[in-house]
Amino acid sequence: MTVDPVIAARFDDAAGPWAGVWIADEIELIARGVHDGTWIDGELARPRAGLGGLDDPASTPGPADALRRCGAPWLAAEVAPLSEAMHRLTGDPVQIAAHARAWRHTASALRRELNALTTAVRRDTRAWTGGASAAYRRWAGEREQALAALARAAETMAAITEGTGALIGTVRAMMRDAVTAVVSRLLTYAVEPTATAGAAAVVAAERATALCAATAATMSRWLTALFASIRRLLGAGGRLADLIRLLKEKLVAGRNNALDDPEEPAQPTKDPELEAARIHGLGMDPHTAQFRPTEAETARRLERERGITLTRAPSSSRADWFDETDRSYDAVGPFDPKYFERQWRRFSEQIVLHLKKADLVPVDVSQFTPQQVARIEAFIARTNLAPRVFIVGR
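The structure assignment produced for this chain is given below.
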């Protein structure tokens, strides 16, 4: 597969409730990817409903017990490693359900707060006019967007928690079915040496060994696919946690801004000449003393999308820019999309190498097609580079 989408394809519904808000848009992409199951390896079946497959191995008899009861301990020894692998793959359904339930309770509380805020704004500001009313409505609208996105993120965290447990339970059930099928075959082998002696016992032992080896190989593939699937899902969860942190910061900043006197005069706008000089400086390469327009454009996209102000890094630094909190950024891209396939290997390597140069690596995708953006997103998710590596310029 060229695309490994823990995060779904780009969300282009411009009329949808998430349009225009990059954090909410990215949360919706992750939610879609989690719910449609694209993170599940093709080697595995879709998870069965619920967490019933995660039963306690100590409470259920092993399939090999039937071989011991029929007087064939030598065959039971052959199947023992298969049973052991199955029994080691377990979990606590009660704890998993409790974690998912906690996330859903959080989502419900956020939606109640959202509904209360929406109702209050509509009721209390109907006859309010002027600059202060416009500022308040703008603040309330941003808070509503943040609350809705947080609720969606909490629901997705619940789905990630349940999805992980359900897939493990499904793979365990697949392994149990496979072991049961092996035991059924071995029971027929156990009867053959009692009917005929000598060579028949040797043949039965060889067939049993071959059958168990083939089943072990199949189960090994399932486990490899399971681990790969969970890595993808955990990568989405890590990115989601980072987005939740950004939303919480946005809410705190909005609350602090709301405490300011709304009747205070607006701050003077930035001097156009000084701002133009600052933006020009963002594109100046200190090592070559040359202006790079694409770097300046990437810096401006980064500032707009992240709500930060950048300064050019000094020549002693390997990064491109620093923000107000002294976090460093080193951008990758963009370039002509017609060279994307030819440059993909070097481009993906540069993303990883840039992590050695800065705290954060924004990948500018402003010139790429939706399919190329999806490939970059899949690469970031598959290699667990988020949240240090992220997309700008959608």
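Interim note for the steering committee: Residues 127 and 133 are 9 Å apart (CA to CA). Residues 272-392 form one domain.
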